[in-house]
């Protein structure tokens, strides 16, 4: 310290606990206040806080703080006792990090704020010291400026007029001097008893968010605004307000005003920073040094630094910062220090919590003792904080957030601290708002992208179970830690737990077991997310039971109802839980439940995104339900059009393969049937209705039922088809062309089978003889549904043992691959390879050949009917 003379010394040791940082700040503040050095207290407290934090929090040792007063200033030393101190390599190029880095920030602050500083290392300790010099000014003066030439002095009128206005406790004017009358044109009689707010054009001071009424209640205020003169013009003034009280204790405010151009008469000069030291930058803004220079979009970093520096600036024990939601009706906790941050983060409070100044976040407020007004600041309930000061963050008059500093001792803060904190908030508000808007823009873009992707995924399926799975998988972990989907079958049904998902797969079973034993949420159609505390309460109670059983203290709890749940599951489920209704077509069809782990909250933006997702998911789920119902009806009707089963024909093997084109179709335009007509006689048919889909299926049903009815009435083949032709034509515009192969089968005693067939426009049946030759078994005749007068005839075919009769629809013969087509010849070639095969093996080989003929799936219905008379050896 050179030749400086030591005039006082103070020292204290602090234990390695977090509370020691606040105690060290208080020790330095009290010491310097007692020595009469108020101008350097803030810098000293900030630097001490950083260095003690490094010692007790990061190094984990006790910290010794030594304050030394000299005739030139103050030197403060902070020493730690790390037992395994490693001496650093000294290098002139050593860097302590940038202002944006957490590591090395204490030394960076020393560089910015201290006149001199240094670090001394020993084998078992490290000492960081800094020196703050006092301004060289005459004793007894608050500040002094250098002598200036006349040309550099500020301009003023020949006579400087200082308006002196006194305002009573209600904001009304009760004193008005001659200079005020000269400046503004009003006599004392004209303005006495009127509110100053009626004359003030507020505000003119850049960056201020304090109104005239609030400024008059502060203990001291200084700035510029306008006064509307008697001629209607606004006169810019610079004002200095001082709050006083008279001998009976009544408060009032004395206002000194000059023309704004003459502000030098009243304006207090900024506190001198002292002479620059070796590494000191005289142009550094102290609050900007506190905050650092985070990237504009680093909102969380900016907010966390703000609360830490605000706490240090007011020597508080905790601090917090809340940001306004888009509609400015609620504030959301975004950063805190000295508080259980996990529990407080993203918690929301209303902007207007009550009537009056202290119930709104839009104005500064000071609470001397929170024990006297329980619940006045809900965020501080059960935290041990007694006194608190809060100020708004405003940009262009619009509320952006709220900044608060709290202490464990009562009566710690007053208007002076509120003013200092408000100035700090005004300086950081624009940066906070800019970063907040940047974050909102990123969230909105991400939300839009998320919703677009979600809509695509939900629209890509009509399966109910897959829709439920997609809903849960899109929310976990993007929106929530866990998700449960409840569905409601109809208005008279209770909600049913349909799907459960947790980001940790090991916890899904425990979560499901818990939710099954909890009554489901009420199906309220009100839009938006609403809290549902039941899972959290059940999780905590279940975890308590498990803990008591573990230590053998359960007693009667062993027989109490309720789930036994692990502490891990309880922690994963025990946070905030919200329910969003799934409303489709004016009916609640389910609920989407989202949950967080213990002490965690949802952000407002996340809840809004979840609400958008729930609307899309509800419509997708309802569409899947309608599709499932209609598919079930369609399939039931289609199955009614198929034969109930193939009868056993004595002495004849029969096999059928049927493939309907189109997803979800069981019946198309192709059909088959085999049924008993009378003793020893069987009817068989295979046909193809023009087209596919429900219309073709309707004609299929007509044809199949008509064939059975007419055949059993004793009509022969030609008569059956002629009457069916008339029935199709009676359908009018709904009629369809129909190709049909109909026949009657009589097994013979000699082991052969006699067939009488009519081929009405259908692909001709093929007969495979035992020697491998293939030939057609009928002649072509006109198709049905075209002409009224048909003259059809039947042909007789005898199947000897080992012969096969193959009947197919054109979906087989017209199978295509580019310009190639299987055709009748191709089918015959395949059939020649089936000699000796059973009827089932023949139909399977035909189908395999058809499928392999082309790579693309079949686009037409297919039916294959194979009948074979077995040889004697087959029996």
Total DSSP helices: 20
CA-CA gap between termini: 120 Å
Q: How many β-strand runs? A: 34
Low-pLDDT residue spans: 87-103, 271-287, 354-358, 553-564
Based on Cα principal axes, name the global outline: elongated
Q: From the helix content, strand content and strand pairing, which structural class follows?
A: alpha+beta
Strand content: 25-35%
Share of helical residues: 25-40%
Give the strand line-up of the largest sheet. 7-6-11-10-9-8
Biggest beta-sheet profile: 6 strands, antiparallel
Radius of gyration: 46 Å
Mean pLDDT: 80
Keywords: Hydrolase
Organism: Streptomyces luteireticuli
Region (Disordered): 267-293
Domain PAS: 164-194
Describe, in plain words, how this protein is organized in 3D.
By secondary structure, the protein is of the alpha+beta class. Helices cover 32% and strands 25% of the residues. The strands form seven sheets. The chain has a six-stranded antiparallel beta sheet. It has a six-stranded antiparallel beta sheet with strand order 14-13-12-17-16-15. Strand 2 (63-70) and strand 3 form a beta hairpin. Helix 16 (694-712) runs antiparallel to helix 17. The longest helix is centred in the middle third of the chain and has 45 residues, at 415-459. It is elongated and about 135 Å long. The termini are far apart. Residues 87-103, 271-287, 354-358 and 553-564 have low confidence and may be disordered. It comes from Streptomyces luteireticuli. This is SpoIIE family protein phosphatase. Keywords: Hydrolase.
